[in-house]
Design goal:
135 residues, alpha+beta, 2 domains, two-stranded antiparallel ribbon, disordered N terminus, Prot-tyrosine_phosphatase-like, Tyrosine-protein phosphatase domain-containing protein
């Protein structure tokens, strides 16, 4: 093994060699990447400019996994669907934030998840959606 893995983009400081074809079309040629390397702060601007010119940021973004990576049954419940601002962004069941309510017939659902970090715990959510005065 040479320490590289195929992720679809090149992590070198050199410009990406494009696979030919129309410049308006994204290059679908697989690339090889080495593990992240250190970049001297003074070289960061030039590094980012080269990556922007060669569409490397685009290719990196396109390599990110998509779709659901966990259960989100509470987000999909009919009573909670209207609380989801975007149909494709749902709270995971295992780490969802549960609201404390005064009434048993009120839903404890909000489209938000706790994000565990080694130093702190974070609460991540999108903007508020006011359905009625209770929300």
């Amino acid at each position: 093994m040479d320490g590289t893995k195929n992720t679809g983009y090149d992590n070198s400081l050199d410009d990406v060699e494009r696979g030919g074809g129309d410049d308006d079309e994204p290059d679908e040629t697989p690339r090889t990447i080495t593990e992240p390397t250190e970049i001297v702060c003074a070289e960061m601007k030039a590094y980012n400019e080269r990556r922007m010119k060669s569409d490397q940021f685009y290719h990196e973004f396109m390599c990110l996994p998509t779709g659901s990576h966990g259960k989100h049954s509470y987000s999909s419940m009919k009573v909670n669907v209207s609380k989801n601002r975007f149909a494709s962004i749902l709270a995971f069941d295992h780490s969802r934030v549960k609201l404390h309510t005064d009434h048993q017939n009120e839903s404890d659902y909000i489209n938000a998840n706790y994000i565990d970090a080694s130093i702190q715990a974070y609460l991540s959510k999108y903007s508020n959606i006011f359905i009625n005065e209770k929300n």
